[in-house]
Amino acid sequence: MKQVNVQKSKVRKVIIPAAGWGTRFLPMTKIIPKELVPILNRPSIDLLVDEAINSGIEEIILVISTRKQEIMKYFQPNIPLEEELKSKNKWELLKHVKKTNRDAIIRVVYQYEQLGLAHAILTGARFFKNEPFAVILGDDLIKSKIPVIKQMMNEYDKLGSSIVGVQNVEFDKLNKYGIVKPKNISEKNNKLFEISGAVEKPLPQKAPSSKAILGRYIFNYSIVKFLENLDYSNENTGEINLVDCFDKYLKEEKIYAYEFDGKRYDLGSIEGFTMATIDYSLENSDISSTIKKHIMNLASEIYSETALLDLNSEKNKGGK
Ligand code: G1P
Questions:
Q1: Ligand 1 mean position to 177 CA, how many Å?
Q2: What is the CA(135)–ligand 1 centre distance, in A?
């Protein structure tokens, strides 16, 4: 993903919530924050920070729990390591290590209780003044030519209204996401359309559309008042969903959905993480040819196994 140099956007800040336990990655997440699990040699959160920086974002707010200090350490300089690499003339490695120190301002805000996404965003937006801001969720890694948040910033700068990033998902996966209710959608505006609401993780047969919110948002600051008014004290409701405040917010302001271009990986699941690792390895010139060979060998093994199974089932049929 290349940095896109265009006129400055009105969106300068991004919140990246990263406080959750990462239970699907236990036992590893007993000791390592899920956001530091690597895609090849880079923690996944570094790829999301890249998306923000390559979009022209100037300030990144990482909302973490106090158990996850290592995330902050990753973005701080490690002087003894830098000195060691210098003394051994390992300039290429030094370049990689220094890149993690980052030019954008990276701030950490602690979320002391894990009360869900709405609460994490509210925690991160506490220090914002009246300004729009973006949100990038760590479970949604998106590979694209133009960084997804930049695609949405371009739309925001034209509209001035909040925007959620969506893509179509398969019917049986609709219950995993926030699903938008399009207001009017036509051939002409099927990539950018107003919504009249959203439903968090509906039963597929009750979903208002097939368009799922996939971890990218741009909000006008006015959303903060609505996030503040959600009920975080009711223990019975468990976590508070972000989309729960949309209905009230929509009475005062518009929200648009934007169907972004890009290939999204669900880093919240081990399968998604594995697929991302395979795809990123095929794009890494140092290892791609070895990995390609490995995949081709595997494919031919799988193909012969399947062919053998087919043959046996044909034989069995014939024997009857
Ligand atoms: C969260 C949001 C959901 C969104 C999803 C994207 O759900 O609540 O609306 O569609 O992220 O990945 P979670 O995956 O944290 O349960």
A1: 5
A2: 12
Asked, as a colleague might, if the bond just before 27 is cis with ω within 30 of 0, I would say: yes
The CATH superfamily of 13-269 is Spore Coat Polysaccharide Biosynthesis Protein SpsA; Chain A (3.90.550.10)
Distance from residue 176's CA to the centre of ligand 1 (Å): 7
Res 238: pLDDT: 61
Q: Which residues line ligand 1 (CB under 6 A)?
A: 117, 137, 139-140, 177-178, 200, 212-215, 241-243, 268
Query: Which band of pLDDT confidence, cut at 50, 70 and 90, is reported for residue 92?
Result: confident
pLDDT tens digits, 27-50: 998 999 999 999 999 999 999 999
Continuous segment of H or E residues that includes residue 179: strand 178-182
pTM score, whole prediction: 0.89
257 CB neighbour count, 10 Å cutoff:
25
Shortest-distance atom of ligand 1 to CA 20: 15
Beta bridge partners of 266: 140
User: pLDDT digits over 93-149, tens only?
Assistant: 888 887 776 667 899 999 988 888 999 999 999 889 899 999 999 999 999 999 999
Q: Where are the domains of the chain?
A: 13-269, 285-320
Tokens of 179: 């699903």
Mutate to test the pocket of ligand 1, among 15, 137, 170, 216 (most ligand atoms within 8 A of CB): 137
Helices (H) and strands (E) in the chain, counts: 10, 13
Percent of the chain with pLDDT over 70: 92
